[in-house]
Write a structure and sequence with these properties.
By secondary structure, the protein is mainly α. The chain has helices spanning 4-23, 32-51, 59-69, 79-85. The protein contains 4 helices and no strands.
Length: 89
C-alpha cells in the first residue's frame, strides 16, 4: 500500500510528464514555412552526399573545420556564417 506522500509524489510526476509532453517541440508542431525550409535543407544535404561532394557542407562539418582552425565565435555562428568565415562561399 502506498503512503500519502508516495501518492502525492506520483501525482506530481504524472502532471510533470503530461506538461512536458504538451511542450514537446517536434517538427510536426512547427510552422509550415519552417518545416519546408528544414525539408529543403535536408534534401540538399542528401543530394550532396549522393553526389560525393568533397567540401564539408553541413553546419556540424563546418563547425569541426572552424574548431580545427581556431576560428573565434564559431559556436554562435550559423551554417552560412561559418562557411563565409571559412571562405567557402
Amino acid at each position: 500500500m502506498a503512503t500519502q506522500r508516495q501518492r502525492q509524489a506520483a501525482k506530481r510526476n504524472v502532471k510533470k510528464a503530461a506538461g512536458k509532453a504538451r511542450q514537446k517541440k517536434t517538427i510536426s508542431n512547427m510552422p509550415k514555412s519552417t518545416r519546408t525550409a528544414l525539408g529543403k535543407q535536408g534534401a540538399a544535404v542528401a543530394q550532396r552526399k549522393r553526389t560525393g561532394a568533397s567540401a564539408p557542407k553541413t553546419r556540424a562539418e563546418l563547425y569541426e573545420e572552424a574548431k580545427r582552425k581556431g576560428l573565434p565565435g564559431r559556436s554562435k555562428m550559423g551554417r552560412d556564417e561559418l562557411a563565409k568565415a571559412l571562405g567557402q562561399q
